[in-house]
Amino acid sequence: MKTIVGLEIHVQLSTATKLFCGCSTDYRDDEPNTHCCPVCLGLPGALPRLNRKAVEYGLKVAKALDMRVPEESEFARKNYFYPDLPKAYQITQYDKPLAVEGTVEIEDDEGHEKLIRITRVHLEEDPGRLVHVAGGSKYSLVDYNRSGIPLLEIVTEPDMRSPQEARRFLNRLRTILEYLGVFDGEREGGLRVDANISLEGSERVEVKNISSYKGVEKALTFEVTRQKNLLRRGQKVTRETRHFMEGRGITTSSRSKEEEHDYRYFPEPDLRPLRVADRVAAIDLPELPTARKNRFMKQYGISLNHARTLTGDPKLADFYETVAHVDPVLAATWVADTLLGELNYRDMSIAAVPADRIAELLALLRTETITDTAGVQILREMLDACAAGKPCEPPAVIVEREGLARATGDEFTQVVEKVVAANPQAVEDYRAGKKGALNFLVGQVMKETRGRADPRELGKIVSGYIDTGGV
Amino acid sequence: MAGTLDFSPDDRYNAFITTCRQATFSEGTLAGTAVAVKDNISTARIQTTCGSKILEGYVPPYDAHVVELLRQAGAAIVGKTNMDEFGMGTTTETSAFGPTRNPADPERVPGGSSGGSAAAVAAGLVPMALGTDTGGSIRCPAAFCGIVGLKPTYGRVSRYGLIAYANSLEQIGPMARTVEDVSRLMSVIAKYDPRDSTMLDRPYDHRPSADIKGLRVGIPEEYFGEGVDPRVAESVRDAIGVLEGLGAETVPVSIPGMQHALAAYYVICTSEASSNLARFDGVRYGPAVDTRKTWHEAYQDLRLELFGAEVRRRIMLGTFALSAGYAGRYYAKAQVARRNIKEDFERAFCDADVIAGPTMPTTAFRLGEKSDPLSMYLSDILTVPANLAGIPAISVPCGRVDGLPVGLQIMGRQFEDERVVDAAFAYEQEVRA
Amino acid sequence: MITESDIEHIAELADIGISKDEVPEFTTQFNAILDYFEVLDTVVGEGAPAAGITNIFRDDEPRPCLSQEETLANAGSTEDGFIKAPRVM
Question: Domains of chain B (ranges plus CATH)?
Fold first, then answer.
């Protein structure tokens, strides 16, 4: 049974001011109702003024998604009554959107390239935020700080065939938006998704209120299972709107009259139409993820997987490029695998990591001054310091202080002698041809040297030592 | 010379909703001049109600652009004038604060919706006032009360701070006893304001000239047809004769789209109003909504209680005209009709420099006379075309019928407000002399 | 022809209160007005008036906001800096 998914994505554009007024968009962590003016409060007599940057950002996205910008576009009023919507209409775009007909390339479930068609993108204003008072209270509390934040709504064709594809699409879209510098993925609630999902031949269900890209796969997976179960039991899927409960990972029927809404759209008389198609040619796009991925493979000789991971986030890719000079392949492994893993574990951003220190660490690894094991230990120490807001010591200082330099010469021979002498049974097993015995002995040496020896090299040394009758 | 003006008027005609007894003023071209402001124009620290209970007690935190300009010019803002609720009326009878009476005959309406401003000027309480004109709301009361009123070209005066009734049609404009004062006030308020995106940077800075030699005055047959009181038509024809005497020539013109004008106007203004007036929910301002009820219940109850019948009727009409299944027949058709009328005027203005006709088909109605909404709407037929076309139009007194004032309406090309002012000035100077 | 139940439906769509005894009067008035609007059926042509000026923008430069006190000053009821509104069921 084919799964058919289409998405409507709302992203907050990272402009300095709101879409129609000069209030700052930097409202997170601030007191409620402190980023407001007559315009975004919908006070009588106030008039909207369109933010040029929001339009430029919209056009940048349109160009990056290979869209057509119609000669004329215009804003319209979407009329509905809700306490978080101060004018009782949302200024949005209806039958004349900013751009239409684009594509985004993703990988399908078999790893093949696939194009997802973009129907349209348009600009609109975010409503305020409702806080529901706990304890079954009759009233809500409203904060209008978010009211008027510029949103870009991106609508896809129903081209995705699984929840995983939908997640990959969203990741790719987010990456593109971040590359374009029009969206800050770290802002809470900066991306919201409504998903349309149906099983082939059945009714379509709209899932609203998905507020993270990780939530999309969860919500859609839940829906696929729910809809399949309905059909398996011989029931029908009802055409309806459902809400995603992020915390519980389920969707619930909203039983609202949403389908009956009559938004009575009409052109916004307080704004003039846009004629911006001729501005698209002059827009300079940055290198986009696919191009950068291909360049990384060619220029740095790194693997597809590493290139893909590194270019998945423009900040990570920039970081890589500042440290790649030490040794591109070594740097790719350390940044894409080790560093990224450690960052995820700490929920840290790459922005908090000093690139010069990582370059120094890579240099120590490249000159084999330290082993990989010691490298990881030093990296962790540096990241812990950064996370705690402490100064990040140069890796060479840590090596010195902790005595982590690669073990060599006499010190090394002494440890091997000590380990071999202390484990006669293992030595015997090794001589009897048991492979595991050598690993055990190497492990013991590693333990004694606290990772300051290279295990591959060590294997040869230990076996050579025993074979040449060191004992 | 900055100072304070004591303002304690004998408001026997109920022209004001709010008066400012101690009105401060500064230096400037209007230094110390008492100016009344229609109560749908936002004034910081002064209650602004739109003639509605739903905004009773609302004190804007900001001044409308025109009010900023008035203050800069030294005017003393002495009060907020009565009006039909949200501008929805032709008589000032739909005000929640009681009707205004016509100083020319207190048993009659002053016209509307800027009836308070017109009555305040006509009664001599202030020399000049601001009104707003969505479909005739400056010109109608000017004609009924026997004063001068100008609806500027759409986009010439900032709407920032004007509480919207029908955004695409309305303009703030000057009202005064003389054309000269109208022109003076216009020079103060018509200055560019980037906060109104529908505005153009075409400031008005003009001293009226009475020289109209060679002016081509278009006479549209549609303005003298059925429904126009023949005695009103005759007064207006006499006035046009005066213009001819001053060297103007008349040419016949035609606005065939007039047959659709009134319906198109009412569809557009009610559609826009249904959206504009939805924000009055008692949450952020205005009399508080009952937060113990559920949202829709509380909202509907508030609007039933605090909006008058005409406002609710127009909100419903506009909602209907925009609703799924009807928008094509009403809203979309009205836009086409509007385009046709605009083009009719453009054609007419190839042959004529200005177009003249009566402002209103009749003289002022008796209080309570227009109880049926449609019959009241029909009286706007001669004023709405200028709003649909976005062109300037002035009403200047031209005689009386049964002792009641009649208004001569002169319309001009877009951004030729100066020319209609000059034509009105020439007439006024001639008949006064 | 608009019926009384149409009027009640429109009032609901407009989210505007209408009292029972107003319904018959509103219905009569609506029918008269809509009869008059029928003249629009004879409008010839298509398209709204031309756009005129286009591309009116503002620069993306922050301007001062109202203080929280000013924002809340006209609100009927507030709580901890928020504005109170009826709950949507």
Answer: 3-259+332-432 (3.90.1300.10)
